[in-house]
Amino acid sequence: MKPTLFVLAAGMGSRYGGLKQLDGLGPNGETIMDYSIFDAIRGGFGKVVFVIRESFETDFREKILKKYENVIPVEVVFQELDKLPAGFSLNPERTKPWGTNHAVLMGKDAINEPFAVINADDFYGRESFRILADFLKSVENKENEYCMIGYRIGNTLSESGSVARGICETNKEGHLTSVVERTYIIRDTDGKIKFKDENDSMIEVGESVPVSMNMWGFTPEYFKYTETQFVDFLKGNADNPKAEFFIPWAIDRLISSGKVTVKVLDTPSKWFGVTYANDRASVVAKIHDLINKGEYPNKLF
User: Fold this and answer.
1) What is the pLDDT of residues 83-105, one digit of tens each?
2) Is 46 within the bounds of a domain?
3) How many domains does the chain have?
4) With 153 labelled, which of 54, 66, 136, 271 sits at a CA distance of 20 to 30 A?
5) In DSSP terms, which residues pair with 119 in a beta bridge?
6) From the centroid of its chain, how far is CA 161?
7) 282 is in which domain, residue-wise?
8) How many CA atoms lie within 13 A of 50 on its CB side?
9) How would DSSP label each residue in 85-148?
10) Do residues 151 and 211 make contact, with C-beta atoms less than 8 angstroms apart?
11) C-alpha distance across the termini of the chain, in Å
């Protein structure tokens, strides 16, 4: 059975503005998501599930899903604030989504095979999907063996400003031991990559240090863990209108408890995305360059 690609597309781009998932950046109006689907298909994925908000379902089906008819099976699931476990009610002050791992939980009734999780608005690159698909095929009928595509930090920076990245540490087997979210990472004027630590000191890191770009590989029992963890998360954060249930938060607890391993898989792919509005022109140019090099056809679908 081929693995499934699970695309997190429920978020709104607060820094960029609007539904950046629907922004046409390719020569025929292709979105970043279209390039991910194209790469996933040639990498060996067999189905795509999107998690979106019901408020833009009509737009999404018209602008996005129509392209994939007769190309790959697709399903849509919805992330809404009131999708909570029994016994919990929505805090009226809550307007922020519950986070990436809540979005993943929305796929539990649609996915029964090994699956990948990606952001809709990140360009991950061809090789990353191939590496991820190969791993997921290797863990079919297994449990508790997950993976994360580890991008080399130097391949993930924005030319328009600082970025936030989860800097990863691994053991000698190449398994993830921790992800530390660094909210201010930048390439300095001297060309060195530095992040701001808890004391506001700038710390230099090497070009190839692995970071998480929210590209994960799981097997279906992950949904059960996530259901349990979401209850725990709500018990501690139900009254905090800004707390978010992120994938690294959940993964860290699963690793610490010894329940799972997460293999960090190196990729040569360069990440890019529209973090800031100023990034848009650069992304368009990079896609154009990849087409000229023959990595993508001029028209995807």
Assistant:
1) 888 888 888 888 778 889 999 99
2) yes
3) 1
4) 136
5) 8
6) 20
7) 4-292
8) 25
9) -TT----TT--S---HHHHHHTTTTT--S-EEEEETTEE--HHHHHHHHHHHHHTTT--SEEEE
10) yes
11) 24
